[in-house]
Amino acid sequence: MAAEIISGKDLAHELRLEMKQKVSELNDRGIYPKLSVILVGDNPASKSYVNGKKKACKETGILSDVIEMDSDTTEAQLLQQIELLNEDPSVHGILVQLPLPKQIREQKVIDTISFEKDVDGFHPINIGRMMTGEDAFLPCTPFGIITMLKSKNIPIAGKHAVVVGRSNIVGKPVGQLLLNEHATVTYCHSRTSNLQQLTQQADILIAAVGKINAIRAEHIKEGAVVIDVGINRLEDGSLTGDVDFEAAKEKASYITPVPRGVGPMTITMLLENTIKAAKGLA
Ligand code: NDP
Asked: Which residue numbers delimit the Tetrahydrofolate dehydrogenase/cyclohydrolase catalytic domain (predicted)?
């Protein structure tokens, strides 16, 4: 039987309607959630991501402003700009669009954002709190994945989750969140020698590799839940994930598509984190 498709687009739409309501309730109490985004340089992909975030904020009534800085901005100038936003009480969330020009150290930038405004969930304090299971801003893509699983009441506790990919923004944190939900977690990466043997054991398989067809039918156990995080561009300009979707959907019980899967959830969780910051819950 073909897998049920988990539409991130539909879920994101539903959640954003709920958020619009929450924002309006906050507005009634005189609280105006606001996200400030810093964009350094003129990378077209970064510009388009920032525009997407701005549009999503508008859709839910969250205020946003984009601070554009030249590509030759120094690290000191950027850190100074972040400090200004840290001190500005009207700003609840700060996001510095990555990647940054090479003269600027990314980790230094992440460390400078106040952890209480770190709506990307990349600050070491938020990462530490996520590990200990305390209240934290969760990184948006992993948070979106867990939200998708929960939206379908997919059991996580006691299940074997296999995460392919170990980046700091996707692989590592999604494994940690699955562990927090009591899954048994296995991480795979480019040095894993028996990938197929491990992925075949997965009840929940997360593909966060960044390579077309990295996960094929032979990697998937019958009935597994397959979450495809990958975003790869085909020659005709269209987007595809890491999973051979057509073959995988014949074996999986649930599967996420690309596009309209994890992608729309990532921005949605950024909005959720901004509302949380405005409520001062972190
Ligand atoms: P990275 O390039 O940082 O990490 C890729 C990971 O895949 C690494 O851990 C790497 O291992 C591992 N890997 C590479 N080749 C193999 C292989 N042959 N077998 C097993 N593991 C392998 O990417 P990101 O984590 O940042 O992103 C992953 C994908 O998700 C990308 O396509 C990205 O565009 C997409 N993405 C999508 C988002 C969304 O909102 N939908 C958000 C963020 C990312 P090693 O560590 O050993 O190098």
From this structure: 6-120
For residue 224, what are its two tokens? 């597994």
Instruction: List, by residue range, all CATH 3.40.50.720 domains of the chain.
Output: 139-263
148-188 residue pLDDT tens: 999 999 999 999 999 999 999 999 999 999 999 999 999 99
Q: Ligand 1 in contact with 269 (CB < 6 A)?
A: no
Q: Which residues are catalytic?
A: 53, 97, 120
Report CA(217)–ligand 1 centroid distance (Å). Answer: 19
Q: Which of 170, 192, 197, 256 to mutate to test the pocket of ligand 1 (most atoms within 8 A of CB)?
A: 170
- Tell whether ipTM is more than 0.90: yes
Residue 166 Cβ contacting ligand 1 at under 6 Å: yes
Residue 73, both tokens: 């901005």
Strand partners, 68: 39
Q: Which residues pair with 69 in a beta bridge?
A: 40
Does domain 139-263 sit in CATH 3.40.50.720?
Answer: yes
- Numbered ranges of CATH 3.40.50.10860 in the chain: 30-114
Atom number of ligand 1 nearest to Cα 267: 40
Contact 46, 53 (CB under 8 A): no
Whole-angstrom Cα Rg for the chain: 19
Task: Please name the fold of domain 30-114.
Answer: Rossmann fold (3.40.50)
Mean pLDDT of 58-86: 98
